[in-house]
Amino acid sequence: MSHPRVAAYARLADGNVNPVRVIEGQEAKLARALHGIVYDSVHDEIIAPNPFAEAILFFRGGVNGEEAPIRIIQGPHTQLDGGPDWNTPDSVAYDPVYDEVYTRLRRGRGADATPAILVFPRSGNGDVAPVRVLRGPKTRLWDPYRIAVDGENNMLVIANRDPLGFLIFNRDDSGDVAPKAIITGPNTGLWGTPQQIQMDPERRQFIAAIPGQRTDEGYLQNGFVGVWSYSDNGDVAPKAVIRGSKTMMISPRGLAINTRDKEIYVADRVRNMLFTYYAPHILGE
Description:
Blueprint: E1 5-8, E2 21-24, E3 38-40, E4 45-50, E5 55-60, E6 71-74, E7 92-95, E8 100-105, E9 116-121, E10 132-135, E11 146-150, E12 155-160, E13 165-169, E14 181-184, E15 196-200, E16 205-210, E17 214-215, E18 218-219, E19 224-229, E20 240-242, E21 252-258, E22 263-268, E23 273-278, H1 280-283
């Protein structure tokens, strides 16, 4: 039986290798459905959601084994109590420029039964209220899946289910405001909701993991990694892709980038593998 854990591997690891460190055990307070964690290199912290506890957990960067979080955002004032149907936070994003943590509510409940993006100070601890909430019909949010933020260029990108694609906001937008751009349409090549997004401030682009199509017989091998420019709007094809049988990808779910070494890391939900791609054509020669 599997149990919740976060595993760290050496960057050059290859094949059937053991992780160099893991976060696991009851003291860690992790749960399954960790669909998006982030590392804060400025403060050397790992930030992870716990959707079942309706909480955001903060660990020291060198955590190993059964170790408790150093801070937990949790409680009624946080608005993280999203109710049933996987509404609670299962992923997070971090803005190192403004030191803020973002998470999502899929649908909301009660009088505020609408999707929302919640923003917290990274240093928050306990039952703290969000500093901003993006919510309302003008936002076009519906089942927002993943979030990425670039404080340097004032960009907030949200993977959305309907309309299917990316909603683009200013980083500090709050309340019921319309997106400044929406990337959606057949030319995007999207089969389903983007599974993970990474920002590349230097090249003013974002990179997303796009899942493969699911059929009664299983997944088609048409998932891909796509790249869009910050200035894109409308039915825009990605300016670069990683796709095809040689990539071994079927349905990518996790995504991370390493701009220093020009590498893109992709976790595939069907193959249960982590792939590393050398991508100077995307991350700069």
